[in-house]
Amino acid sequence: MPQTISYRFFAPKEDKVQIDLNFDDRTYKLQVDETADKPDWAKLSRNKCSNCPLGDDVEWCPAAVGVAQFLPAFKAKFSYEKTIVEVETPTRTVVTKATFQTGIASLLGLTCATSGCPHTKFLRPLARFHLPFATEQETVFRSLSAYLLMQYKKNHDNGEQKPPTFDDLNEAYATLSIVNSFLAERLRDAVERDAALNAVMILDGFALITPENTDGSFLDLEDVFLVE
Question: According to a count of CB atoms within 10 Å of the terminal CB, is the N or C end of the chain lower?
Fold first, then answer.
């Protein structure tokens, strides 16, 4: 039974825009209609990421195909336009006032993380427990906590007792930043205005935050564990 997360955008004097994302219940991979027409900018060879591990036998970029499902609804949106965004997950509904760039950033992040892109799959456990419009501190806390839990489980399953490090996580975020830059180039061919492009920049900003906290300082979390 697929899981569904719905994004609804409400703006003055405009029709509601609803985007329904469906995910495989076991893997939480994004489900797309493989028979639907796909835009040329979603081809893997078009602005292909310099670090993409997919070969010539793959015709379509997984992340781009996921984004192409809903991008036409936002191609003419300016980043600063105001909207109310309602996000319905299987367990809760979140409603917030935002700009279109912020709403699209949340939608883009969820889509890319679950798209099947090899460089974003490390984010899929977070997507399973999607928290729309997370703050910087929430993002750092969730990312580091999930990664440490994953390391613990991996070591436990392998019968190992390695001290935890953030080396692989830092590398994953550095790789993700490259993906974001190439995704922005793809979207330039698909949009008329800047809301979606700025949304990618917002995502990239979040991708840079977590590695800044893995040197032992945990600056963004220093007040989280204060219990007096």
Answer: C
Sort strands 93-99 and 17-23 into parallel, antiparallel or unpaired. unpaired
pLDDT digits (tens, 9 = 90+) for 14-45: 999 999 999 999 999 999 998 899 999 999 99
What's the CA angle centered on 98, arms 92 and 103, to 5 degrees? 65
> What DSSP string describes 195-214?
HHHHHHHHHHHHHHHGGGG-
174-189 burial, b at 16+ Cβ within 10 Å, e below that, comes to: ebbbbbbebbbebbee
Tell me the C-alpha to C-alpha distance, in Å, between residue 82 and each of 10, 27, 97, 181: 9, 34, 7, 25
pLDDT in tens, 74-118: 999 999 999 999 999 999 999 999 999 999 999 999 999 999 999
Phi and psi dihedrals of 95, rounded to 5? -125, 135
Q: What is the pTM of this model?
A: 0.93
Residue 203 tokens, joined: 């995502």
Q: Is 102 exposed, middle or buried (0-12, 13-18, 19+ CB in 10 A)?
A: buried
Could you tell me which of 38, 53, 31, 63 has the C-alpha nearest to residue 182?
63
The whole-angstrom separation of Cα 74 and Cα 87 is 17
> Nearest-CA neighbor of 94 among 7, 4, 212?
7
Distance of CA 18 to CAs 70, 108, 152, Å? Answer: 9, 14, 39
